[in-house]
Amino acid sequence: MNIGVVTEIKPDENRVALTPAGADRLVHAGHPVSIQAGCGDGSGFADEAYVAAGASVLPDAGAVFAECEMVLKVKEPQAQEWPLMRKGQTLFTYYHLAASRELTDACIETGSYCMAYETLEVGRTLPLLTPMSEVAGRMAIQAGAKYLERTHGGSGILLGGVPGVKRARVLVLGGGIVGTNAARMACGLGADVTMMDVNLDRLRYLDEVMPKNCRTVYSTPYAIREHLAHADLVVGAVLIPGATAPKLVRREDLSILKPGSVIVDVAVDQGGCVETCRPTTHSNPVYEIEGVLHYCVANMPGAVPRTSTMALTNATLSWTLDLARMGPVKAIRQSDPLATAANVVLGKVTHPAVAEAFDLEYVPPREAVEAL
User: Fold this and answer.
1) Known active-site residue 96
2) At CA 203, angle to CA 202 and CA 209, rounded to 5?
3) Cα 132 from Cα 120, distance rounded (Å)
4) Which of 33, 120, 271, 358 is spaced 20 to 30 A from 152 at the CA atom?
5) 3-class SS at 19?
6) Per CATH, which fold does 130-303 belong to?
7) pTM of structure
């Protein structure tokens, strides 16, 4: 299968979907690889490195989409890329379709095989979401610490405090990969950390493995409001695979927070778990509502593209190889994990959470390819 890699055009996105090492693996497996000229520059991978790995270089995204049976990306296809997608072509990337009806409709119109990293499931885990969740969770604390500084509009509190001065309080909503990495970073900086989740088994596990300056609390609307009153930094880290994030912090709850406190909503890709969340960019990352700073960058790992690109390729490469070897139809029929990655297939919505988000007809992925 011919595999293509294009330059990411979402604002401030410097990642690329494949490293030269990944291209080398694909080429040696018998799959020609074509890259868009300069696609790896933002991550520090020159075209020459891809050529040395056996890839060819094409001048623009149009050429890549035209020549390749499968296209690899990092972020969801942007509006100017929709016309380039074609019927029967496979596009393997992050989509987060439940957050955008417009994007969902566009994917349906293309007739492509839209395979999503974020919904590929193995034994109740999301292995292709994990590496970027790890990066985003850690970056959430770096961003929160920065915007708590008075010079950036925050309350002027240092996360770890100093001897004789109280530490900042960090509230992490969600005990998954993002939340755990955020809490570990905050704990490492010496903050007073509270993690909230509705999964008691997960809370028991976290209670055993997290540092002593981290406490766990069962999440209820009442408990969230109670802890918002004391929080200096709130990290939204809730995920329902493929679905819109639940709104855990309402607009009226902002009045509970202290002036100069900071919210970092990592769930912004899925609509955000804070009602006042709206996507921002690395160029303009924050806005203020009722004295509370909101950091809602939708591609946080894009700020550390070298690390992120390598971590992403490490996770996606084996699945890319399987998808290329089998093709989308056989992959959906024979691979349970790749079937869960199918979000839109030949104009049919094949992920239940996406269908539910927009009241669209859901067609099981294997049923969508049954007649092929």
Assistant:
1) yes
2) 90
3) 14
4) 271
5) coil
6) Rossmann fold (3.40.50)
7) 0.88
* Domain spanning 3-126+304-368: CATH superfamily: NAD(P)-binding Rossmann-like Domain (3.40.50.720)
Is the confidence at residue 285, as pLDDT, over 80? yes
Spell out the domain ranges in the chain: 3-126+304-368, 130-303
pLDDT of 372 > 90? The answer is: no
pLDDT at residue 45, rounded to an integer: 98
CATH topology of 3-126+304-368 equal to that of 130-303?
A: yes
24, 31, 96, 232: the catalytic one is 96
Q: Which helix (H) or strand (E) segment is 28 a member of?
A: helix 20-28
Tens of pLDDT along 145-167? 999 999 999 999 999 999 999 99
What's the CA gap between 234 and 224, in Å, rounded? Answer: 10
Contacts of 53 (CB under 8 A, 6+ apart): 20, 21, 23, 24, 27, 33
Residues 24, 197, 232, 269: which is the catalytic one? 269
Please give the distance of CA 224 from its chain centroid, rounded to a whole number: 24
With CA atoms as reference, report the closest residue to 298 among 267, 263, 262, 261: 267
* 206: CB partners within 8 A, 6+ apart: 175, 180, 183, 195, 197, 214, 216
**Residue 193 pLDDT:** 98
Packing angle of the helix pair 130-147, 177-188 (nearest 10 deg): 40
Q: What is the DSSP letter of 334?
A: H
